[in-house]
């Protein structure tokens, strides 16, 4: 009976640890109302520049972002923690128009399932 209690307690702890992340993600992954339709259309049809068979993202992974250049390399701000992550050249979209002129990053939130600076796709805006 003691092992069943410990198992149940472990399950409850795991669920409790995951809940704040889910609540946080729900608030972070919303686009301004004026951008929602545009983003749904663009993100739902975007494929990885270095792997055209794979989808880049979805509404939860992609968002407009701030960038900076360091020694000629592009770094984009990850929304979850504000860290500027490097953008590999092969992940930069070059064969598609950017419909709103902003920089867009498709990247998973930092977690144990992806590399520390994982990202899927990047579109450079025209206003930078």
How would you explain this protein's 3D organization?
The chain is globular, with a radius of gyration of 18 Å. It is of the alpha+beta class and 128 residues long. The strands form three sheets. A three-stranded antiparallel β-sheet has the order 3-7-8, with no helix packed on it. The longest helix is centred in the first third of the chain and has 27 residues, at 2-28. It is built from two helices and eight strands, in the order H-H-E-E-E-E-E-E-E-E. Mean pLDDT is 77; it is low at 10-28.
Looking at this protein, list some descriptive labels.
single chain; 128 residues; alpha+beta; three-stranded antiparallel beta sheet; 2 helices; 28% helix; globular
Q: Topology of this structure?
A:
Layout: H1 2-28, H2 36-44, E1 47-48, E2 51-55, E3 62-64, E4 67-70, E5 73-77, E6 84-86, E7 104-106, E8 121-123
């Amino acid at each position: 009976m003691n092992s069943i209690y410990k198992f149940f307690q472990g399950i409850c702890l795991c669920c409790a640890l995951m809940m704040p992340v889910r609540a946080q993600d729900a608030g972070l992954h919303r686009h301004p109302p004026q951008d929602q339709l545009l983003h749904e259309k663009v993100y739902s049809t975007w494929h990885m520049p270095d792997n055209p068979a794979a989808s880049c993202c979805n509404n939860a992974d992609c968002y407009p972002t701030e960038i900076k250049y360091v020694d000629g390399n592009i770094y984009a701000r990850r929304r979850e923690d504000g860290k500027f992550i490097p953008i590999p050249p092969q992940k930069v979209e070059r064969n598609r128009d950017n419909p709103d002129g902003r920089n867009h990053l498709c990247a998973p939130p930092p977690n144990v399932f992806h590399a520390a600076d994982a990202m899927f796709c990047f579109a450079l805006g025209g206003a930078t």
